[in-house]
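This part of the workshop introduces the protein records we will be handling. The question running through the whole workshop is how a given chain folds. To make this concrete, we reproduce a full record directly below:
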Amino acid sequence: MTALDRSSTVAVVGTGTMGQGIAQVALLAGHRVLLHDAVPGLAAKAAAGVGARLARLAEKGRLDGAEHRAALDRLVAADGIADLAPAALVVEAVVEDLEVKRRLFAELEETVGDGCLLATNTSSLSVTAVAGALRLPGRLVGLHFFNPAPLLPLVEVVAGAASDPAAVDTAYDTAAAWGKSPVRCADTPGFIVNRIARPFYAEALRLHEERAADPATIDAVLRESGGFAMGPFALTDLIGQDVNEAVTRSVWEAFFHDPKFTPSLAQRRLVESGRLGRKTGRGWFAYGDGVAADVSVPHTAEPADRPRRVTVGDLGPAEALGNMLRKTGIEIVEDAGVDCFELSDGTSLRLADGGLEPGIQFDLAADYTTATRIALARTPEVPDAALAEATGLFQALGKQVSVIRPVPGMIVARTVAMLVDLAADAVGRGVASAADIDTAMRLGVNYPLGPLQWGERLSLSRVRETLESLHAFYPNGRYAPSLEVQWRAWAEEE
């Protein structure tokens, strides 16, 4: 272990919500903590705020009296930069402005000792650029905490181009000693989470723009079929449409307008209209007095009669549906020669694969046994009776059904294919290890599965085929499978 000794002093510069949260984490890990802000009086106010939160922890029995008093004794409001001289680690959590951060670290470098580790909590700026003006750029690393820092376990430890490996190791081990779950990451736009999470928002927005379904239905399908904790429309309302759109635009611009990261015009219009989400009382949904916290009502099909007989073939990732169907009493005809369900009139009912073959498609689920909703889409020649039969089949399996407009990849299948692609591409480019990426996406944004784990469960060959089919419909490069997905799919097929 190269973690900082608990006797070392930690300084936090910037006393907003994130700065106070980081200070609380370091304080409860046993360090003396110096809180500083450039605005006079804010450091003392922030120290009082941290003290109040510690008092609440003590009241709830999560901190005993002696620990509470000792922590308060170790917390110091520092009026000037010069007061930070004893620090062995300084964590910056000031405004997301490159020049502001560079000036701050240049001033810190003249104050602290050469052995002091410097860390930026930036979520969107280049760690390399932040360190660029330093005399000793090797001692600066990224320590990206997630809000609220005392509660969320993930910390992205970012190595800039000039970061000393020993400094990165110390930052990683210190975060682990503080009870966090650190992951290592190269200095790349968006780091791990903000880079790889883009399709979760972008594909939902594109589906909305294509009128595949309304926001409430897209959210419901991603939650109840995809297994995600929140849908992207409700989540961006919570984050703030302006904040989410700014991150998307920042990553897109940093990647030189790569089509995989293209922002949404629909979201831009929402921001321009001032509908920023919960903080303004209106985003994709409405909030406030007299409005339910969640006013989103998804489209749900009316009850339909279950089919009397269904042909069941090789269902691939949806194999669990065949096993579930065998317990419903519906007559089943087994046919290994087909890769779908077949309804009584011969209409195919197949898992979404990125194409638009004639028939009915059903969407991907993280776990078909626990999913409570399934999306269906039919091509124009499918009769109403066949759609009703497909609806009744899934209702017989205990699922609510949302019928959406036919679009390539539907909702969950398209989103997951893109998440897997960006995750695999990040591995291939040396951004982070597969294990760290999966950990980051589960802990940072609460995904039901790490994207690479999900890709292996589906098979990378299927992911590649889904992306290739999507690319055939949208040949602008957005859905072109990454080299890493292609390599992994080929290896899988050998």
Remarks:
- The chain has a mean pLDDT of 95.
- The longest helix spans residues 42-59.
